[in-house]
Amino acid sequence: MSSDALAAWAPKLRVFLRRSLIVGLITLVVVALVGWAIGAATGFWQAMYVGPVLAVAYNMAFEDPARWRAARENRWYLRSDALIHHGPEGEARIPLADIADVRKRLGWTVVVFLTNSLRLRIAYVEDPTTIAEQILSARSRLKP
Description:
The chain crosses the membrane at residues 21-38, 44-62. By secondary structure, the chain is α+β, with helices and mostly antiparallel strands.
């Protein structure tokens, strides 16, 4: 049985960089506040400056590039009967009847909740709200 193609999505570098900037700024502020607390308690004020720089440097040099290399190969396809994921590990086909709910998370991710309590993440996409609506609409056409 053949199904109709409805939509396709892939991670976008621009969205990934926006996420990295937001997470980096939050990390910078939190580590600076911890450094300030250490400086206030011990007089070692360098912790307020060195900690944030090291945290941001680690994220930019190691964590973010590795995360993008893992995510950039993912492709998601919505068909009239299934959600299909093509990734580095192969293909996974999720029947639309197995989807319990779909929600947007953090402005760059769509989380697909399955009836067996598992979750799938469609990350670094440009319009997660529209993607969630498309998946829910396709599911509702399949099972009224």
